Structures are given as structure tokens and as C-alpha cells.
Amino acid sequence: MSSTTKAMNQERLMTVLVGPHVSEKSSLAAEKHNQICFKVRRDSTKKEIAQAVEMMFEVKVENVQVSNVRGKIKRFGQTLGKRADWKKAYVTLAEGHDIDFLGAE
User: Fold this and answer.
1) Is it the case that residue 87 has pLDDT exceeding 60?
2) What number of CA atoms fall less than 13 Å from residue 3's CA on the CB side?
């Protein structure tokens, strides 16, 4: 692979993860199954998500499960609106690996 393709690939991987998704369900998954939940780009693949997490957090990814979340229909006064569709990924980390978002040691 040439250096320009590798650089473009690394730039793409930097944009795959939108941010962590914190919810009651994701907190339970983190405690029970050593999984971290991320909001990711809608056009990203499982392989890209795994590579992005390994590159950014320096951990070993064991498995990735993705879910397409449909945006809810909401009312704004008399008009109907729709929230954007998005994709989330549950990333299972290898035994002994952990991601610390708070930075506390």
C-alpha cells in the first residue's frame, strides 16, 4: 500500500468514530461484557470501526456489532419533523483491555 493511500485511510479512520454513546443499556454492556458503545458514521464498516478504535485508543478489539438507529418522528408545534438516522457500534474489547474516557487513573 502506498503512503498516500495509507494516509488517506488514516484520515478516514479518524472520522469514523463520532463519539461515545452513553445510555443505561451501554453502561450495562460495558460492565457485563467489556463492550463500549460508539456513535459512528453511517457509511462505516465493522472492519473500519475496529481499526479506528484500535488506532485511537491503543486497545485490542475482539468483536464489533453494529445497529442502524432510525430517527424518531417528532412534532414541533403543528409541523412534523424527523430526527436524523444514525449508526451505533458495540465494540467488544479483548480481555484485559479497557478505555478510560475520564482520564482518571
Assistant:
1) yes
2) 0
